[in-house]
Amino acid sequence: MATLSPQPLILAGEGWADYGLVDSGHGRKLERYGDYRFVRPEPQAMWSPRIAGGEWDAHGEFVPGSDEDGGGRWQFDKAVPPGGWPLAWNEVKFTAQCTPFRHLGFFPDMAPVWNWMRGMLAGREDASTLNLFGYTGVGTLALSAHGPVTHVDASKKSVAQARENAALAGLQDRPVRWMIDDAAKFAAREVRREKRYDGIILDPPKFGRGPTGETWRLEENLPGLLADCRKLLDADSRFLFLTVYAVRMSSLALAGLMEELFTDLPGVIEHGDLAVREDEQSRLLPTAIFARWSNPE
Question: Which helix (H) or strand (E) element contains residue 157?
């Protein structure tokens, strides 16, 4: 029986050569992406910036719209390549660019998750993994070092970018199955096919639409999707990692749902916050909540 660890964890990401959290405060954050710096909204940065006077030298800033669920636009003070520019995390290369959704083509706070998953599969080259809501494929390419990966996203544009990232990194021959599909419907079909995976990562949005107009609402649809993911794992599987952004929800709620569904598997269920540490500082900026099941050898 999987054991629930009651105490929350903090998975803190550190900056690396191509990314860093420079400063944060007053509801904003300053980040470096290679040679470029950007300011983005960050409601959880309720403290004051560390840089004297709060003056941030940035190439651009994302100014949010008036409604809290989205919208906004980029304002640039310096030239930025409109088609993006290459970055790298370990052997994985990818393109960063300023998207209309305030992101820059990947989620840097996921770096400790990528490291953790690779640690769970250490020594394996035949592990079969599933990346639901796979976005632009950085996590997929990280997992592909350990065996075949099925990458699923409803956005044709995101999957196309993921394939381009694989080519940029010289990893286009890695065993990845690229799927443009609704994540929940795909998982349900895999259950009917009696498929199994050694590991699953899923990063569902608060709200979204599938390729044929399917509607996704996290609070309504996550329990069913997670139940199907559980059916794709067995006692020899290694992990499931779930991240959730921008919701009024506790990580303990995610862990409680996972405990109910994973009661017949061995291993441990943990939960907590993802965070990013500021460059050369001890301050942590929380970014998301997570719950994970792991079954180490």
Answer: helix 156-168
What mean pLDDT is predicted for residues 183-208? 95
- Domain map of the chain by residue range? 3-17+84-294
**Architecture in CATH of 3-17+84-294:** 3-Layer(aba) Sandwich (3.40)
Beta strands in the chain (DSSP E): 3-4, 9-13, 19-25, 28-33, 36-41, 60-64, 72-76, 85-89, 92-96, 129-132, 149-153, 176-180, 199-202, 207-209, 215-217, 239-244, 268-277, 284-294
The answer to whether the CB of 245 falls within 8 A of the CB of 287 is yes
CA angle 184, 185, 191 (to 5 degrees): 90
Crossing angle, helix 183-192 and helix 218-231, to 10 degrees?
Answer: 30
Predicted confidence (pLDDT) per residue in 14-52, tens digit? 999 999 999 999 999 999 999 999 999 999 999 999 997
Let me know: does 159 contact 149? Beta carbons within 8 Å: no
Answering whether pTM is above 0.70, one says: yes
What the block records as the tokens of 5 is 């660890």
- Tokens 């999707």 sit on residue: 225
64: which strand partners? 72
